[in-house]
Write a structure and sequence with these properties.
The complex is a heterodimer of chains A (477) and B (70). Chain A has 477 residues and is an alpha/beta fold. Chain A is 38% helix and 18% strand. Chain A is globular, with a radius of gyration of 25 Å. Classes of the chains: A alpha/beta (477), B mainly alpha (70).
């Protein structure tokens, strides 16, 4: 056996951890959590959740694969094609993830169990739908106790959804700065009055936030019978001078009320610059656009990739040339409107995953020691990267030198299809007209020189009537 | 602006759940009761009722003593 490598984002869980061995991912269940893990199966909850697509299935793995001596079981969860993070989700993806969490909680309660955490990082978009990935999040329901994951659910789901819906969809990016969830007082301060007065939002976000502020300090809790606890832990029973009970009716009402609050939040993508790009712009004639599709499809078939990352994918027109061939494809774009539209169209498509990623400022490593959540590049490389009508935006609008651009694309993918857009293209002329320096290096010679240092050029195809050209490249060893 | 980073927020959340427990419990009871009336009037009986939901006046939890009771 090779050495086990513990996944850096998995250290917080007291019940076990995820590790990698021989290129496969496993989850170790520690002895102290054995009983709760067994009940997931014996109560029938595991079968109910996996059959409804709410929980990622796993299979038992040989115990000798365990990473440490205190293992109770080792399981091998179904492999995810890509690990995404909530700050890379569009509104619809985040909302669906919230509803999956609540439905899993409702099913768990029906089987005498409950979710002990409700982290948005425990949900992944898998085969076109959100699914819970942490089998160790379930524990036996203890009668009379409130939902210990309530605050986390509100901070990880309700708060971001409310501010995205009520104020501005771009505020979902606050989650990058608040990896333990958006503080409720901050979310409430950002909400417009019309959103704040919605019953579910007011109760679970505004009033709940006030209660956290008023009763959160340790001294204020014991006097009221619900003792202070550790981070996310349940109230300590022995410290309650006059114990209150949280009835099952109240518990059920809490989950139903959260579900109604989440379901009532919406965001419809407005028509943005990018969402109408191919319909409106006059960059391509119909013939050039058709030829571009033929060439990209030909390059995809020639390279036979297992994964494709389409950078600046817009509404995924070219991403689908890969995903329709059964290739797992990421459609990355920085415009929330186009990602939302692509998600709505692709919902349930197992091969296409649209995500909100700005290639000029890709997701960084965040969390503890900057290693808990991976950078975009660490989650690669893809077999094939598509950079279609992208280089001129990054080089001119974002001032990224061509050699740095080539270097980053070489980190993201083994092969690349790159579109060169010449200086006399109408889009480039428009961009250059507003810039105060000449971008002398933005020439085809400069482009080829920069990319030839990182890539071997395997093919090039002009797009008739546009002056643009598509290059197929393979990164140099 | 109050900075809350040093406060144990889940404690405040636990208390808040106890505070709203009565409201939530009554809400579920009312919905169950309304469903029972509706089913009786439309003759649907228990066919359409969810297995997870109790009948009016009864709890799925046999040890349930009511919301927020001391």
């Amino acid at each position: 056996l090779s050495d086990a490598r513990v996944v850096p984002g998995s250290f917080r869980d007291p019940a076990g951890f995820v590790f990698e061995r021989d290129g496969k991912l496993y989850r170790q269940v520690d002895r102290g959590f054995g009983d709760a893990f067994d009940r997931l199966t014996t109560t029938g909850l595991y079968d109910a959740l996996t059959s409804e697509g709410l929980l990622l299935p796993h299979r038992e793995a040989p115990p000798e694969l365990a990473a440490t001596g205190d293992a109770y079981r080792v399981i091998e969860p179904e492999r995810l094609a890509f690990v995404s993070y909530p700050y890379e989700w569009c509104f619809g993806q985040w909302k669906d993830a919230a509803l999956v969490t609540l439905r899993a909680q409702a099913r768990a309660m029906g089987h005498g169990m409950t979710l002990r955490d409700a982290s948005a990082f425990n949900v992944q978009l898998h085969r076109g739908r959100p699914v819970l990935i942490d089998s160790l999040s379930f524990e036996p329901l203890r009668e009379g106790e409130p939902w210990r994951a309530y605050a986390q659910f509100c901070q990880h789901f309700l708060a971001p959804l409310a501010i995205m819906s009520g104020r501005d969809v771009r505020l979902g990016q606050l989650f990058r700065a608040h990896v333990d969830g958006i503080p409720l007082d901050l979310a409430a301060s950002l909400l417009p009055r019309r959103t704040k007065v919605r019953p579910g939002v007011w109760l679970h976000l505004v009033a709940h936030g006030r209660s956290q502020a008023r009763h959160g300090a340790a001294g204020g809790t014991e006097a009221r019978g619900a003792p202070p606890n550790g981070a996310g832990g349940p109230p300590r029973e022995d410290a309650a001078p006059r114990r209150r009970r949280f009835s099952m009716n109240a518990f059920r009402g809490l989950v139903q009320s959260l579900e109604r609050a989440v379901a009532g939040l919406s965001w419809d993508p407005p028509r943005s610059v990018w969402s109408g790009y191919y319909g409106d712009c006059h960059t391509y004639g119909e013939e050039a656009l058709r030829r571009k599709e033929e060439v990209v499809a030909g390059f995809v078939e020639a390279t036979g990739p297992r994964s494709v990352w389409d950078l600046g994918a817009n509404t995924g027109r070219f991403s689908r040339l890969a995903s329709d061939r059964g290739i797992f494809t990421l459609a990355l774009d920085s415009d929330p409107a186009v990602v939302e539209r692509t998600y709505r169209e692709a919902r349930g498509d197992p091969h296409l995953l649209p995500l909100l990623v700005d290639v000029a400022n890709p997701s960084p490593g965040i969390g503890w020691a900057n290693r808990e959540r991976m950078t975009l590049a660490e989650r690669g490389p893809a077999d094939l990267v598509l950079a279609l009508a992208l280089v001129h935006h990054l080089a001119i609008r974002n001032d990224v030198p061509l050699d740095r651009l080539a270097g980053y694309l070489a980190r993201l993918g083994e092969r690349a299809v790159v579109e060169w857009v010449p200086r006399d293209d109408s889009q480039v002329r428009q961009m250059l007209s507003t810039r105060d320096h000449a971008f002398d290096r933005y020439t085809e010679e400069g482009f080829l020189e920069a990319f030839a240092r990182r890539f071997e050029i395997l093919g090039r195809e002009p797009l008739p009537g546009s002056g643009r050209e598509l290059f197929l490249m393979r990164r140099r060893p | 602006m109050r900075l809350l980073a040093y406060i144990d927020l889940p404690s405040g959340s636990a208390i808040f759940q106890f505070l709203i427990a009565g409201l939530l419990g009554v809400s579920v009871a009312f919905r169950s009761f309304w469903r029972w009336i509706w089913d009786a009037l439309t003759g649907r009986g228990r066919r359409g009722a969810s297995a997870d939901e109790p009948k009016p006046g009864e709890s799925a939890d046999p040890t349930d003593r009511g919301a927020g009771k001391g």
